[in-house]
Hints:
The protein is mainly alpha-helical and 154 residues long. The chain has helices at 6-20, 25-97, 105-108, 111-122, 145-153.
Amino acid sequence: xxxxxxxxxxxxxxxxxxxxxxxxxxxxxxxxxxxxxxxxxxxxxxxxxxxxxxxxxxxxxxxxxxxxxxxxxxxxxxxxxxxxxxxxxxxxxxxxxxxxxxxxxxxxxxxxxxxxxxxxxxxxxxxxxxxxxxxxxxxxxxxxxxxxxxxxxx
Length: 154
């Protein structure tokens, strides 16, 4: 807080000794020490109160956020229920009209596509090879490495 060195303290002591006198100097030093202690305690209490209020504000913010998350989860559940009800109504309407419902996206995958997808998901860090293009098309986008090397060298 204050940067008071040895020489500053010595100068203050000499001036206090001259002004107050040697008889009253110990009593004045004691009372100054008491006041400094009271000020330090007051400052530490103020700091503690400020930190306590900051923590209370953070907790209130966290509680508000959790209540928002809970309300969003409730809305999500209601939306899922509504979608399931609509899906069931559509299936009932299709059944009553005798129309075969369109297969779902996950039902249209063949067993080999699902197995390939599972294998691709299980291998971490490996990417799938690029599809081979027509070499006769001349677009150069899907040429294999040997044809590229022949162009470079030739």
